[in-house]
Design brief:
By secondary structure, this protein is of the alpha/beta class. The chain is 42% helix and 17% strand. It is built from eleven helices and twelve strands. Strand 8, helix 8 and strand 9 form a beta-alpha-beta unit. Helix 5 runs parallel beside helix 6 and helix 9 runs parallel beside helix 10. The longest helix has 24 residues. The chain binds iron/sulfur cluster (SF4). The site of iron/sulfur cluster has 15 residues, from helix 1, helix 5 and helix 9.
Length: 311
């Protein structure tokens, strides 16, 4: 079984920067409480690493609710960004604020703020309950409509002369296309600002392209991570290959690879590379005994030739 490492995969620049910011902060303030406002990036391994360094994860229904649980020390805002209200309230509480928002997310915030100020009504395609839409919506709450699906578009009532649509950074182009197409049909004058980030786009394109020559694809990452889940989705829906999401090598199942000759491996933008390396190593080992047993097995007799797989 050949294991194909799909490139690019794993950490994006936003995640690298967020992790660096939190490492520096925890080293600079060893005696002060440091809290992450929600998951710094959507990966349990990263969260555990910081918990071991004494960084407290404060997670709640919303970033504002989470902030209610932080009364002193440093608060780190995650790569997904927060609404201006969260930042203002953190400063008003006298907290030391470290903003690890990804520059790509900041760009979306700036876009939405500008459009809101210019009087646009804005449709934002995103996932309800994800922190990124929560933060972006806070930039222009009066002007924004959050939609996930084409069915949501059917319910929209837009009255402004100026209309725009933009997106969460970690969706897929294919995912958003149907929604944007329907918006264009219903509101032909709508301006489209696609904000899917390059890191997401490049990982998805590479996964789809490589999956076409693989029998199965393994995606390493957390089920919390939007961009990781989209990788699974694009492999299944666009490359028409089975795709399995694993958090670690322990989640791999032999039966997924029973008849596979080529297995592709990719990982979400928040997946630590050592976890992906371990998955690749395990898959490579999984392939070895079968090859060895085939090589070591006696040549099949004519009687055996119609039999099933060798043991
Ligand atoms: S996935 Fe994109 S938006 Fe999210 S942190 Fe990475 S580069 Fe930034």
């Amino acid at each position: 079984m050949e294991v194909v490492k799909i490139t690019p995969r794993g950490y994006c620049h936003g995640v690298v920067e967020a992790i660096r910011a939190l490492r520096v902060t925890s080293e600079q303030h060893p005696d002060e409480p440091v809290a992450m406002l929600g998951y710094l990036v959507h990966n349990e391994h990263v969260t555990r690493e910081f918990a071991d360094r004494g960084v407290r994860l404060v997670d709640a229904g919303s970033r504002l609710e989470a902030l209610d649980q932080v009364d002193s020390g440093t608060v780190v805002l995650t790569a997904h960004g927060v609404s201006p209200e969260v930042k203002e309230r953190a400063l008003a509480k006298g907290l030391n604020v470290v903003d690890a928002t990804c520059t790509d997310v900041i760009r979306t915030h700036e876009l939405v703020r500008r459009l809101g100020q210019e009087g646009y009504e804005i449709v934002y395609i995103g996932r309800r309950g994800h922190p990124e839409p929560e933060g972006v919506m806070g930039e222009a709450p009066q002007a924004l409509h959050l939609v996930e699906t084409v069915a949501d578009v059917e319910q929209l009532e837009l009255s402004s002369e100026k209309l725009a649509v933009t997106t969460q950074t970690t969706l897929s182009v294919w995912d958003t296309k149907a929604v944007i197409d329907r918006l264009r049909e219903r509101f032909p004058r709508i301006e489209v600002h696609n904000e899917i980030c390059n890191a997401t786009l490049e990982r998805q394109e590479a996964a789809v392209e490589t999956a076409a020559s693989c029998d199965v694809v393994v995606v390493v990452g957390s089920s919390r991570s939007s961009n990781t889940k989209r990788l699974v989705q694009v492999v299944k829906e666009l490359a028409h290959r089975p795709a399995y999401l694993v958090d670690t090598a322990a989640d791999l199942r032999d039966e997924w690879f029973e008849s596979a000759q080529r297995v592709g491996v990719t990982s979400g933008a928040s997946t630590p590379s050592q976890i992906t390396r371990e998955v690749i190593r395990t898959l490579e080992q999984l392939g070895e005994p079968r090859v060895a047993s085939l090589r070591g097995a006696p040549a099949p007799s004519a009687q055996d030739s119609g039999s099933k797989q060798p043991d």
